[in-house]
Automatic annotation (TrEMBL):
InterPro entries: CARD8/ASC/NALP1_CARD, DEATH-like_dom_sf, DUF4559
Protein name: Zgc:153935
GO CC, any one term: cytosol
Keyword annotations: Coiled coil, Cytoplasm, Immunity, Inflammatory response, Innate immunity
Organism per entry: Danio rerio
């Protein structure tokens, strides 16, 4: 059996979902299930009930789902005689529910409950349903964190339990597991968000780099670029010393004259006087891309 049932070896260890899926998938049962769609309908009923967002159901849906279950039981009556009393048992339990939820309380006691046994039966069924739902949520998320987000079902269930302190107390071990899984989901979601933000940042850097690279690759006439952007270069470029180090074709005397100037603007103005050939213009252009990366990226975008 898949997921949380791998370690289960006895019939009593399986919940109703596992048993229904087993009936639906195993070839052994096909001769008994004359209408295979009935099994799927009952499985759907189970899923609707277990995944109800507010743990509620109106009377019309309840009656319709019960009729689906009764039809399934009638189909198996010849093989499982105990199912013949299913309708009667469910109707008895519904009567208990009606009394439990419709009668007023007097001094903390339900006035018209037939016996405390009936009342305990309601509590036992309620707790078992919640245990099944908690186990489903845990097995659904455990080992599949990458495929899931923090489930609204889990949040809704925790809110319901906090509003019903008796259930919260009686389902202590299950609630502890559920809280542990919720913590794991929160941590995983935080890690995913961090990774997503990091990827977004890298994508932006990559996009900017590609844009600059594409723009710079479109420049082929380097002397023209230097000439057309002379004023911008004089007012913008700051890392002139680093740029001079990359201009290997520039005479040492010219370099000295540039460094002798007192301001960045004066240094750049002097440097541009020596850009008198294609090779030096290209070296200066590449040095600007290297040492004045961001201003050059912005400049090239506007071209």
């Amino acid at each position: 059996m898949p997921r949380g049932h791998k370690q289960h070896c006895e019939f009593a260890q399986f919940d109703i979902s596992a048993i229904l899926n087993f009936l639906s998938a195993c070839k052994h049962f096909k001769p008994f299930l004359t209408k295979g769609e009935n099994v799927k309908k009952v499985i759907n009923v189970r899923n609707v009930v277990m995944h109800s967002p507010d743990l509620k159901m109106n009377n019309e849906d309840m009656n319709r789902h019960l009729e689906t279950i009764f039809q399934f039981a009638d189909m198996l009556n010849s093989k499982v005689s105990a199912l013949s009393v299913l309708r009667e048992k469910i109707e008895q339990f519904n009567n208990i529910l009606d009394k439990n939820f419709n009668q007023t309380e007097v001094d903390g006691q339900h006035k018209d409950l037939k016996t405390m046994v009936d009342f305990q039966e309601v509590l036992n069924r309620e707790q078992q349903a919640l245990k099944d739902r908690i186990e489903y949520l845990i097995t659904h998320f455990e080992g599949n964190l990458d495929k899931n987000e923090n489930s609204p079902d889990m949040t809704t269930l925790m809110e319901f339990l906090h509003q019903n302190k008796d259930l919260l107390e009686n389902l202590g071990p299950e609630v502890y597991k559920l809280k542990g899984m919720q913590t794991k989901l929160n941590q995983h979601e935080k890690q995913i968000n961090n990774l997503t933000n990091r990827v977004d940042q890298l994508e932006k850097v990559k996009e900017t780099t590609n844009t600059a690279g594409q723009s710079s690759s479109q420049i082929t006439n380097y002397p023209k670029f230097i000439k057309d952007n002379r004023s911008w270069l004089i007012n913008t470029v700051k890392n002139i010393d680093q740029i001079l180090d990359d201009l290997s074709e520039l005479h040492s005397e010219s370099v000295a004259n540039v460094k002798a100037k007192q301001t960045k603007q004066a240094m750049m103005r002097e440097l541009l006087l020596y850009v008198n050939c294609e090779r030096i213009a290209k070296d200066l252009f590449n040095a600007l891309l290297k040492h004045e990366k961001r201003p050059m990226e912005e400049r090239l975008k506007g071209l």
